[in-house]
Amino acid sequence: MRPYLVHFAQFHADFRLAEIEALARLEGVTLQYDPAQYRSDNPFMVVYLESNAAAAQLVHRAILVKEICEHWGSAETYEALFAQLKTNPERWEPYHTCSFRFEVKGFGGTLSLAEQIAIIERFSFLGFDGPIDLKNPKEQFFVYEDYGIDPTETNTTPHVIHFGRLVARSNRNIVQKFNLKKRKYLGNTSMDAELSLVMANQALARPGTVIYDPFVGTGSFLLTCAHFGALTMGSDIDGRQIRGSRTKTAGITDNVKQYGLDARVLDTLVFDICRNPWRHTPSRQPWFDAIVTDPPYGVRAGAKRLGRKTGLNPDISFRVIDGQLNHQRDDYYPPTIPYEMSEVLVDLLEFAARHLAKGGRLVYWLPTVVDEYTVEDVPLHPCLALVANSEQPFGSWSRRLITMEKVRDWEPTLSCHSPHFVPPPSQTAESPASLPALADTATGGAIYKPASGGKNALPGHFNFREKYFYARSHSPYVHAAGSTPPQRDSPPS
Amino acid sequence: MLQCHVKGCNDPSLSFPLQLKDVELEQVETEQNDDLLANLLQKIDWNALQMTATELGLASLPETIPDDPDSDEAFMIKLHEVLMEMNITQGKMECRGCGHVYPIKDGIPNMLLAEHEI
């Protein structure tokens, strides 16, 4: 194994390790690192990989990585770094005559062009005599100066300097392609491009797989998962979101055409996930290789399911209106009732346990009130192993991207309410032929815990809608009743 | 993939596959991916697909899957055409058991149940 320096984007820090672990699994790359070396306030980490090819494969569809370099050295001063480099002069040899360029990047500090050039000059002992080519160099070398992010410190010298040779850049540019500002059809629940793409990575979206979103809304995940080659399908109880307004836009179809994904975004359907028509045949592997979704929290889009508040009244279906049975009229819409968040999630897990193919993944957002959240709130199912739990904070509330993997065939006796003992995934996962087994990596299995708390304990996301609006009405950011609070980040859907 | 899910419509021999009626079909050419088709073949109920294709007048699929489908080029081409290129833009799906009609409008099937069916 050889050392490589990963340069992460300094965004969504809690998602970065989960993403590269998902990618290692997806690409069949052996990835090792010391979890204690990972810092959420720092974009650099050394990982160990088998080869340059493995390093390139690992990051080629990464969203939260910027680039990966062969790690040549890290030190607190340039003198110490040069001493390190000089212990491996054979490493410089292949690059003595080819075209090249240097890039000096500062983290927590900026460097003027003159400063950058002065630093580059100090590396002249490497003897790179080839032409300097800023546009299309054969080789690129990176100097990273890390000043740390503590704003109270005014450092004139970096804490650490890293040096490496570029192996590969990531797929981060693709974020621009899916930028919501450029998307034709949007709703108030559309997921931002970056996280939609990270979700597709967590879901191991790849050619030959079928991915489903049971709360499809305006279809953000259909697009990003299909971009990585998966066939995608979605459903929603509210068909208006899928269709869009007839006059201005054709809804999801418009976006599918915009990104040229017609061949891979299969269908969108209208139904209530609690009363779904998906067929489940015990003798065959289920259809879905991943379920990727942002469940309705009831804040922006009210969660609904079929039902009537006052109890079902089947007679209403059979009333004759304008000479036609009510339920056969073109504009008949069955009655719906609110769908409480914790119920939504239990139903989602039950659905995934049943309809995911073994080795398939469930990737969804769990909204949490920060003060009330405990790890016990994450619902579990005996068929599903928790793989990752990454938080995106918004102050008093946050949402967590939960990734689970199906490790056991569904049986009628297994439910979210059965005793939560699940062995670590590494011992049980039978991977689909194209994927290596779930590696026992830093987080895989470590987050595991048996269920605790009595049957009546309510999770922190119970009644999320009420808590969310309560917190807002008591927030110091709200100046007067009815005024709009300052926009801190995207609100929940 | 879809079966009738009306409460009380429990006869699996009738609730699947739904019968397509009054359909407008549209063929959209797409690139063929054999790995994908091989994956889908493991999940598909062949009899149901074959029957549906025949009912739609796409009588090109054999009654049983050939022994070595991956190397049967003609078969894979037909499968791709039926499975991946045929879109139903308008029409309805009817349950052979309870008779519930699920309408398809602009390519979007409406699978919602009425109040007396849940």
Automatic annotation (TrEMBL), chain A:
GO MF, any single term: tRNA binding
Keywords for the protein's UniProt record, in alphabetical order: Cytoplasm, Methyltransferase, RNA-binding, S-adenosyl-L-methionine, Transferase, tRNA processing, tRNA-binding
Family of this protein: Belongs to the class I-like SAM-binding methyltransferase superfamily. TRM11 methyltransferase family.
Chain ranges of the tRNA (guanine(10)-N(2))-methyltransferase TRMT11 N-terminal domain: 4-172
Pfam families according to UniProt: Tmrp11_N, UPF0020
Protein name: tRNA (guanine(10)-N(2))-methyltransferase
EC nos: 2.1.1.214
All copies of domain Ribosomal RNA large subunit methyltransferase K/L-like methyltransferase, residue ranges: 182-305
Gene3D superfamilies: Vaccinia Virus protein VP39
Cellular component GO terms held in the UniProt record: cytoplasm; tRNA methyltransferase complex
Location of the protein in the cell: Cytoplasm
Gene Ontology biological process terms in this record: methylation; tRNA processing
Automatic annotation (TrEMBL), chain B:
Gene Ontology MF term list: protein heterodimerization activity
An individual GO BP term: tRNA methylation
Pfam families given in the database record: Trm112p (PF03966)
SUPFAM superfamilies: Trm112p-like (SSF158997)
Family: Belongs to the TRM112 family.
Entry protein name: Trm112p-domain-containing protein
The organism of origin for this protein: Dimargaris verticillata
